[in-house]
Amino acid sequence: MSRLVVVSNRLPLGDNPSGGLVVALQDALRQSGGLWIGFSGEHEGMTSTQLVFHEGAAFQRAAFDLSPEDYDSYYLGFSNSVLWPALHGRTDLMRIVPEYLEGYRRVNAHIADLMIPHLREDDRIWVQDYQLFPLASELRKRSVTCRIGFFLHIPFPGPAECAALPNPTELLDWVSEYDLVGFQAERDRLNFMESARQLGDIEQVEGDVIRLSGRTLQARVFPIGIDTASFMTEARNAREEDRMRSLTGAQMMIGVDRLDYSKGIPQRFRAFQLLLENNPDLLEKVAFLQIAPPTRKAVSAYRDIREETEHLAGRINGEFATVNWTPIRYIHRPIPRHELAGLYRQARIGLVTPLADGMNLVAKEYVAAQDVSDPGVLILSRFAGAAETMQEALIINPHDPWELAEAMAQAIQMSANERRRRHSALLRDVVEHDVNWWSSEYLAALG
Ligand code: ADP
Ligand code: G6P
């Protein structure tokens, strides 16, 4: 069996990763073994001239550092101030600066240089996410001929957002250098096909096989999953957090997201406010726990969303809190996964309300963590990739606070029978399509 080489921007060297990509790949690589290459997180010194290896039990990791300049242009700049907002439908938040694109190209070329001495002819290379679109094209320039696959963890945009990028045709050329490109949802594959049709040079050969910019490749959907079995066990064993329920005496709603503007956190807070305004009987009976660890703090849009979130939480608490009850509790830190599992299990309602999201693993974690005899209710945005398969959730439009508040009220009142019926259908899918299924399907297709 050939070796699997995974490349992603984010490489976990410490504990407590928050972010779907790292959580999923860590689970996948534990099963298959191999080598995982990525950024160490160090960006104060020089960009590495070689990879630094860290041996692990199940797989090897190899890290590189970035200089402040490379970090600013490639990571904060093109990846997270141009691609991330555009691919999440927020072209208004894009900051197009020529140096960002140059830095993005330069760092991807440099990662290819760092990889070359460590590659074997029969490796299978699996490149992850939007930070690394050009990597296959850089590896091909260096005569790498092995199979190279790409998986996009975030949405692929339609032609309007693609056209707003400074280099839409270059993006399509980068994609064309892979042998297999994987998307989270059918929605993304269709957007990709339509964008390529309008802005690039594509023809559908047969089924999933396409010709893009003169190269033949496959474009397919592989919805990502979680390590369901171990998360279920973790939630079942999370006894300590059981105290939460008696502590609050209220029905708990939970939201768990990196503090990102794509996650719809202010929209969720406003809907909660509406719920309290319209249902005075719920005062002191329902509590909302929002866990939102910091992310990409040096990008101004992230500072703005933090301010907006904290301002809203303060305002709603000021208006509704009593001496015995705080309506919104907000934690701006990562927390250990076993604790998270226990909190999901406690919560009667899981709130997953992104305005745009590749998949959203929190939706799957919430379902996996429930007590099957008395499960909670998942409220899920129709704009999460997860909504394509998790139809038994209460599917909502996160832009509409009335609809969201109504779903919250419906979830609070839902009978145990209906909760069990919805949950068992959701759980079946989360069990069947776990992270192991995702990586096996992808790797089988990569060949
Ligand atoms: P994204 O990849 O955009 O961050 P996902 O919902 O797909 O969104 O994945 C988020 C992952 O990060 C989940 O596995 C979730 O449990 C984890 N996570 C989010 N917030 C925290 C937190 N405060 N502490 C620990 N893990 C977190
Ligand atoms: C999402 C992206 C990942 C990214 C993660 C955390 O899951 O798809 O590529 O790693 O967010 O973001 P960060 O910028 O901290 O790596």
TrEMBL record:
CDD domains: GT20_TPS. One of its GO terms (molecular function) is alpha,alpha-trehalose-phosphate synthase (UDP-forming) activity. InterPro entries: Glyco_trans_20 (IPR001830). One of its GO terms (biological process) is trehalose biosynthetic process. It comes from the Bacteria. Signal peptide: none annotated. SUPFAM superfamilies: UDP-Glycosyltransferase/glycogen phosphorylase. It holds the Pfam family Glyco_transf_20. Belongs to the glycosyltransferase 20 family. PANTHER family: BCDNA.GH08860 (PTHR10788:SF106), TREHALOSE-6-PHOSPHATE SYNTHASE (PTHR10788). This is Trehalose-6-phosphate synthase.
